[in-house]
Amino acid sequence: MTQDLTPNYTVPGIEREAAGRLIGLLRLRLHALNDLHLTLKHVHWNVVGPHFIAVHEMIDPQVDRVRDMADDVAERIAALGGVAQGTPGALVAERTWDDYAIGRADAIAHLGALDLVYTGVIEGVRAAIKEAGDDTATEDLLIEQLRDLEQFQWFVRAHLETAGGTLATGQARTEEEAAAKGAERS
């Protein structure tokens, strides 16, 4: 059942129905960012092996920035007249992806899986930018976040890239497959 997200009021220059569409779009971005924040902390806590400290310390600034991104999205939802659903129940009920699949693992295994997580989040942001349409404020917010997310994925991929410029995780389609390929490399 689809929930009507049309607000009673919104920002000047945007119709209420268009604001409702933007609110729905941003709710999924909020869920993705909250999920990414928790996944990054999970990796931070469960990474082991010779690259432990490099990955452990690389992840925390990403966690902080992703939390800020979630806050920005939630505040945009509120500005549009919507309700920012930031509860775990809402995230789990409305997300369109599975939970992160890797537990305690070698740093490169986690990074292989995390590369796929970032790919999914980035693809979602790109789609949301296209859907934002004429709302330049929402589009600008998403574009800024896209730049940071792509940089974070680059940091992850730098650990997975071979001297020849290919990713050690190859064409992995699942987190488990990417983790296994990454572990083979290390």
TrEMBL record:
Matching InterPro entries: DPS_DNA-bd, DPS_DNA-bd_CS, Ferritin-like, Ferritin-like_SF, Ferritin_DPS_dom
Domain of life of the source: Bacteria
Pfam families: Ferritin
Region (Disordered): 167-186
Start-end of Basic and acidic residues biased regions: 173-186
Domain Ferritin/DPS per the UniProt entry, residue ranges: 26-162
Matches recorded under NCBIfam families: PRK09448.1
PANTHER family membership: DNA PROTECTION DURING STARVATION PROTEIN, GENERAL STRESS PROTEIN 20U
Family affiliation: Belongs to the Dps family.
Protein name as catalogued: DNA polymerase sliding clamp subunit
Origin species: Streptomyces incarnatus
